[in-house]
Amino acid sequence: MQPLFIDLTGKKIVIAGGGRIAFRKAKTLEGDNAQITFVALDFSEEIILLASQRGYELIKREAQADDFKDAFLSILATNEREANHALAKSLDSAQLVCVVDEAGEGNVIFPAAVRRGPLQIAVTSNGASPKLTRMLKKQLDEQFDESWTGYSEFLGKCRDYIKKHSIPPSKKNELLAELLDDRYRLSEDERERKWAYLQSLAETTP
Questions:
Q1: How far apart are CA 35 and CA 43, in angstroms?
Q2: pLDDT digits over 59-103, tens only?
Q3: In whole angstroms, what is the distance from residue 38 CA to residue 57 CA?
Q4: In the chain, what are the helix, strand and coil shares in percent, each to the nearest 5?
């Protein structure tokens, strides 16, 4: 499998299932501003609340192949192995499909992900060892603590600012490399000083 990061903003996602696993997948996607529809005979209180908060659609019946024909991403997360299998077989092979209880029947796997602002780190064992995946995610969570959130946002802001100003390319590369110094991750004051310097540099550059 090839790892990809995909922008799901405004994309239609259909989830077959109304229980714990369906809820967990939807929570993973919550920050992506996708249009999510759940199809199931019953929905957990968690899903009902989430749908109310986020404006997600709930269709109360068994999922059918037609429910997924316009979906950018289909997630088969019913509690029935045979139902997930039958739906997976009925969908177009060109569609993006995640089958939660049998990854090999789909073509999408949700990795264990660590998010710190714009920074995302994902890891998967492609089903070989979920325990290994969980262990590595825990290690990454500890290694990339919350200090990386403000730092990664700072890096993005500085890069955009440097790119849009008429600074010689060699100087731009030098400035971008300097931003990788760990003191900017560890100190908000250092970030503020660097930002002020960049602004003054851009103002004085012809």
A1: 18
A2: 999 999 999 999 999 999 999 999 999 999 999 989 999 999 998
A3: 6
A4: 50, 15, 35
Q: Are 98 and 73 in contact (CB under 8 A)?
A: yes
Cβ contacts of 155 within 8 Å, gap of 6 or more = 118, 179
The pTM (predicted TM-score) of the whole model is 0.83
List C-alpha distances in Å: 46 to 21, 36, 52, 92. 11, 15, 10, 30
For the segment 167-176, what is each residue's pLDDT rounded down to a tens digit? 889 999 999 9
**In the Cβ-directed half-sphere of 146, how many Cα atoms lie within 13 Å?**
0
Q: Is 87 exposed, middle or buried (0-12, 13-18, 19+ CB in 10 A)?
A: buried
* 204, 171 Cβ separation under 8 angstroms: no
Considering only CA atoms, give the Rg of the chain: 22
Q: Of the candidates 45, 191, 57, which has an alpha carbon nearest to the alpha carbon of residue 117? A: 191
Neighbours of 200 (CB within 10 A): 10
CA distance 55 to 35: 8
